[in-house]
Specification:
Strand order of the largest sheet of chain B: 2-1-4-6
Helix content of chain A: 10-25%
CATH superfamily of chain A: Metallo-dependent phosphatases
Number of domains of chain B: 2
CATH architecture of chain A: 4-Layer Sandwich
Number of helices of chain B: 2
Radius of gyration of chain B: 19 Å
Number of strands of chain B: 8
Distance between the termini of chain B: 24 Å
CATH class of chain A: Alpha Beta
Structural class of chain B: alpha/beta
Shape of chain A: globular
CATH superfamily of the largest domain in chain B: Cupredoxins -  blue copper proteins
Number of strands of chain A: 14
Largest interface: A-B, 25 and 23 residues
Shape of chain B: globular
Oligomer: heterodimer
Structural class of chain A: alpha/beta
Largest sheet of chain A: 6 strands, mixed
Order of helices and strands of chain A: HHEEHEHEHEHEEHEHEEEHEEE
């Protein structure tokens, strides 16, 4: 993500942000005290420019994977961390949306931790199905990342008035089914959301998409409709997922769904291959398929600015 | 490697010798062994492209079944009734069970639960 790469790709962060401004020209919706209103974008930005922070989503690092699709997943994770350090706004914290490791081995968790500690800010994790492959599923994961979580590792926290919820949808999966949250987690979520005002911006992060992308490949969550029901009353909801190793976005009312790239290997677009297994691309192109997601929150805007950066230095705004 | 023909020859020899009850038991055991050799050939199920192939298999009691993971992604083999459960199988890893009890066994990959298969165990 060097400036040189940006120039050669012809897509700089500045260009990206300019495009975003163009896209957003006109009125923006705001939520003040739960009452929706609108104002010109420039005014919204000027109202409280200090109330801005960004965080970065990292996903699907698959440390330990060494097959032809990417024999050096540790190297590309290192590149992802290096690219994050060049971002103009220092992220307040990080979300890792699972598949930290490929096979849940202690050595793989160790290797990932060694690199991710270079980020220099807290990392909040949720597990992917590859992180709960130990004999007692999820024990190693929870021993490392489970502090302050409940159940299989779900959690919530607040930052600058934004409520973050980490959900676990990779345990206790049922034959023939999709991702699964389970009744206990949904009851916890209902209680967690109850005291919040509807104007509280919400960010939900989980490994498997919470919207049905391609059930034939298991890209969806069995009981996600119950979660979306609980989130209906909120004016700003951002759902961040991983698992499918590619960027996809959908906006449904006040809910923006977004999936991140992997730092390890790409997977095919839905239905374009015999299976969702690792996609082999020419080595020179691999880094255009890998990346991280930079999310900026600005008070007064109902939608978070989501910018996907590839390890080849390209950025696209959503 | 004992061939079924060797066992038959051995059994016939014993019959001719009009042996003791203990030896008769032995000969019954050998008979059973002989029948399992005839009907319970080991079965291999390949896990490839997130699919169990063959997806459904009918076997005789006593058949040994081996799953081989041909994918670049780990999978598991888990019976829904808990009869068998593999660890995570990385590329080329194998998991073997011997099915003794007749019945229908639905199994799936607990990582990718859309992957399901069925073993039917019944006497030929």
């Amino acid at each position: 993500m060097s400036a040189q790469n940006d120039d050669s790709a012809g897509v700089t962060r500045r260009h990206t942000l300019e495009c975003m401004l163009w896209a957003g020209t006109g009125m923006v919706w705001t939520l003040v005290g739960g009452v929706p209103g609108s104002m010109p974008l420039a005014k919204a930005a000027a109202l409280n420019p200090s109330k801005t922070f960004s965080f970065v989503q990292i996903s699907d690092s698959h440390v330990g994977f060494d097959k032809p699709a990417n024999p050096d997943t540790l190297g590309t994770l290192r590149e992802a961390v290096a690219s994050i350090k060049t971002l103009p706004t220092k992220p307040a914290f990080f979300l890792h949306t699972g598949d930290i490791t490929h096979l849940s081995k202690e050595s793989q968790f160790d290797d990932a931790d060694q690199i991710l500690k270079e980020l220099g800010a807290p990392v909040f994790y949720v597990p992917g199905e590859h992180d709960v492959l130990d004999d007692n599923p999820g024990q190693s994961y929870l021993a490392r990342y489970g502090k302050g979580t409940s159940g299989a590792g779900w959690r919530s926290f607040d930052h600058e008035g934004v409520h973050f919820i980490g959900c676990v949808n990779v345990v206790d999966l049922k034959a023939g089914g999709l991702g699964n949250l389970g009744a206990d987690q949904i009851a916890w979520l209902a209680a967690d959301l109850k005291p919040l005002s509807s104007s509280t911006p919400i960010v939900v992060f989980a490994h498997i998409p919470l919207w049905s992308i391609y059930p034939e490949w298991g890209w969806g969550t069995e009981d996600s409709a119950r979660v979306l029901d609980l989130l209906k009353r909120f004016g700003s909801v951002t759902v961040l997922n991983g698992h499918i190793h590619q960027v996809m976005q959908k906006v449904e009312g006040a809910v923006t769904f977004h999936t991140a790239r992997s730092t390890a290997f790409p997977q095919p677009a839905p239905g374009t291959a015999a299976s969702p297994g690792p996609m082999k691309v020419p080595p020179g192109l691999l880094r255009t398929f890998l990346g991280i997601t930079d999310v900026t929150f600005q008070r007064g805007e109902d939608r978070l600015a989501v910018v996907d950066h590839t390890l080849a230095g390209e950025g696209t705004s959503k | 490697m004992i061939q079924p023909s060797d066992i038959s020859a051995w059994r016939i020899r014993h019959k001719q010798a009009n042996t003791s009850p203990a030896a008769s038991c032995l000969s019954v055991a050998i008979l059973l062994m002989s029948s399992s050799l005839c009907f319970a050939q080991p079965v291999t199920i390949h896990v490839d492209n997130f699919t169990f192939t063959p997806v459904e298999t009918t076997v005789a009691p006593g058949t040994t079944i081996t799953w081989v993971n041909d994918d670049d992604i780990p999978h598991t083999v888990v019976a829904t009734d808990g009869t068998f459960k593999s660890k995570a199988l990385d590329t080329e890893d194998q998991f073997t069970v011997t099915m003794t009890e007749p019945g229908e066994y639905v199994y799936f990959c607990s990582l990718h639960p859309r992957m399901t298969g069925k073993i039917i165990v019944k006497a030929p």
